Amino acid sequence: MKYPKKDLIQPMSGSRWQHIWSGFVGDKLAVMALIIFAFYCIVALLAPLVAPYDVKDPAFMDLMNAEIAPMWISGDPRFLFGTDAQGRDLLSVILYGTRLSLTIGLCAVLIQATLGICIGLAAGYLGGRIDNFLMRCADIQLSFSNMMVAIVFLAIFQSLFGVAMYQQLAMVMLILVIGLTEWPLFARTIRASVLAERQKEYVDAARVMGLSSKRIMFRHILPNTLSPVLVIFTVQIANAIVAEAALSFLGLGMPATEPSLGSLISAGFAYMFAGSWWICVLPSMTLIILILVMNLLGDWLRDHLNPRTYKD
To answer: Which parts pass through the membrane (predicted)?
Structure first.
């Protein structure tokens, strides 16, 4: 007897969405964090339009304007946040640096999520030797410090192919290194959710209907396991931005011609106690606020997307 192949996904109920929305609106801290994060994203996306100066303009770098204090100290209306040691407008490079840091963080986490979700789905649904092999690979990956792996890999690449080649591929290398070292977190989370979901009746019904394992995993099980993934995704973007900033601070990040927030902090640290504190402090404050609001959003999502905190 054949059954109609209707959708077997168990969607989140409308009352659940109403509960989440009302909880969000009632949480002023979460609303403020989302507004600030949205502001960061909009400003970063529109950096070429809102930045006072074009960082790609050869005239942008003028040593005659080096180390000018912010406008509220120097009174110079040309540079709201002052200038750095190379005479660049600090507000402009911070806007472009925020755009670059968010791009690296988002792309790196997309790689983490893609690898982790595919591996976690296969391990949890197929089980057996495949599960054991994939989880042992995850254990091996987790046994090494992610930052140590990134430093060793980037340092070896820089020494083998030269600094010039590394600077041309710095953004791609950072995305790949950060993305390929954090996938076990997604894989373990998805695997745990799949182990619970595959025992449910809608999965048995899908098997009886003759659906392929690939369709069952990606079309029916995956949508019901995305709640914890959203939480991890938000927090991991913040972690990826911090990792990029740390690598840039160590000299393994973006070149000075394409400054990220981490490279701006690294370049300004030498002037921290030489009177030009704003070169380091202002990019640092920008990074701290960005990481703070993303962690606040991640905490809020964790609390409100957890099924144990909600009852119909």
So the answer is: 29-51, 100-126, 147-166, 172-190, 225-250, 270-298
Instruction: Provide the terminal-to-terminal Cα distance of the chain, rounded to the nearest Å.
Output: 36
Q: What is the pLDDT of residues 78-92, one digit of tens each?
A: 888 888 888 888 888
3-state secondary structure of 65: helix
Q: How many CB atoms lie within 10 A of CB 101?
A: 31
The answer to whether 116 and 183 have CB atoms below 8 angstroms apart is: yes
> Looking at the chain, how many residues does it have?
312
Superfamily of chain region 21-53+77-259+272-309: MetI-like (1.10.3720.10)
Residues of the chain with pLDDT under 50: 1-9, 11, 13, 309-312
Rounded CA-CA distance 57/61 in Å is 8
Q: CA 163: distance to chain centroid?
A: 26
Burial class of residue 6, CB neighbours in 10 A (0-12, 13-18, 19+): exposed
Instruction: State both tokens at 149.
Output: 């792996």
Domain ranges of the chain: 21-53+77-259+272-309
d(CA 292, CA 312) in angstroms, rounded, equals 32
Which of 161, 194, 295, 175 shows the shortest CA–CA distance to 247? Answer: 175
CB count in 10 Å sphere of residue 258: 16
CA distance 171 to 293: 24
What is the structure's pLDDT at 2? 46
- Would you call 88 helix, strand, or coil by DSSP? coil
Q: What percent of the chain lies above the pLDDT cut of 70?
A: 90
pLDDT at 15: 57
Nearest to 270 by CA among 62, 85, 123, 12: 85
CA–CA separation, 63 and 278 (whole Å): 17
